[in-house]
DNA sequence: GATAATATCAAACACTTTGTTCGTTATCAA
DNA sequence: TTGATAACGAACAAAGTGTTTGATATTATC
């Protein structure tokens, strides 16, 4: 990719992220992004068709980074035994989030969290599907999966809202207790 | 309140709700609401300052109706024994939601759930606080309460997304299993 | 280093939506 | 019946969107 393209792309991402920390997605205008990123109007629209696409691409960028190790680390293992690592995996994921504090905080802690959450959950589904033992079998599979994903996403949102002051290990432990996960 | 005011207010609510079933809140224009409700532009703005306020007022209207029985039915009972009714209370709440299908579906089933969810959770906090036994004590109270409220809200969202085809009793039962609630 | 390709820019553009204003008409409560 | 007021509709300024244009600057490549 052309250096110029990379440069403007990251400039736009940085600007957008900063703005997201301050105000809601809906109340951010393209003009504000342009001013913050020092990028021309037509340049912006040659990169992204709409503001929504910008958000989507930024989300996937962040998650591809955060989940890159998570999703592929154990895919070659025996499936029935892979449950053993759920606590470690969750802890690891939380540490990743903490490392990306700068990027994630703006998007998630702001009022735009719902949009970000939608993407987050998509990745979580893939993760939890690797741990069949975390799901109770006396409840419909879809219901149980939705519960795991939804409640974990809520826990993370709460954690971030609390400025991530609780240690990742503790968050993971508390969460696993609440979903009744037996090691 | 003047009959004329009531008339236009409900006309706007009805029109707005219908539009919410079809498209996202952000993509609904005031003009569309006016056309659907057969209401003049200036009339709309004499009732609601913005589109957001319209949504907010509609949400509180719905919840005040749905939770009116829920929240006050057992407040005079003995607190330590009130846990016995959680399953019934949840079931009852789900039936209420189903009765308000027409109102709730549009707001929540669409992608506009954000604001609606926020209000919903506020009411849920009050509800779950009446059932101390539903909360594990080996996990920080705030963490546990967030888990109960968040996961229940997610379950309801899922349920509505599935067109409420699962019977309320079953939803309540499955949910209580997942949070490890012992009768 | 020269060159062809192309990314960026600024400015102007048509278009949509918002929220306000105002004079007129219709409806209500008393 | 009458005074109050709600609804109407048309026009308005303001703000934002997404596109187009031609000039300028930067890049990859030869």
Quick overview of this protein structure:
Two copies of one chain form a homodimer. Chain A has helices spanning 3-22, 30-37, 41-47, 51-72, 86-99, 101-109, 113-128, 141-161, 168-178.
How is the topology of this model organized?
The structure is a homodimer of 183-residue chains.
Chain A: H1 3-22, H2 30-37, H3 41-47, H4 51-72, H5 86-99, H6 101-109, H7 113-128, H8 141-161, H9 168-178
Chain A binds a DNA duplex (30 and 30 nucleotides) through helix 1 and helix 3.
| Strand runs of chain A, count | 0
Helix content of chain A: 55-70%
The tally of domains of chain A stands at: 2
The third-level CATH topology of the largest domain in chain A is Tetracycline Repressor, domain 2
| Largest sheet: number of strands, sense, barrel closure of chain A | none
CATH superfamily of the largest domain in chain A: Tetracycline Repressor, domain 2
Number of helices of chain A: 9
* Largest interface: pair, residues per side: A-B, 26 and 28 residues
Roughly what fraction of the amino acids of chain A lie in strands?
Answer: under 5%
CATH class of the largest domain in chain A: Mainly Alpha
Order of helices and strands of chain A: HHHHHHHHH
By CATH, the architecture of the largest domain in chain A is named: Orthogonal Bundle
Q: Mean pLDDT score of chain A, rounded?
A: 87
* Oligomer type: homodimer
Tell me, what's the shape of chain A? elongated
Task: Provide the low-confidence segments of chain A as ranges.
Answer: 73-82
* SSE-based structural type of chain A: mainly alpha
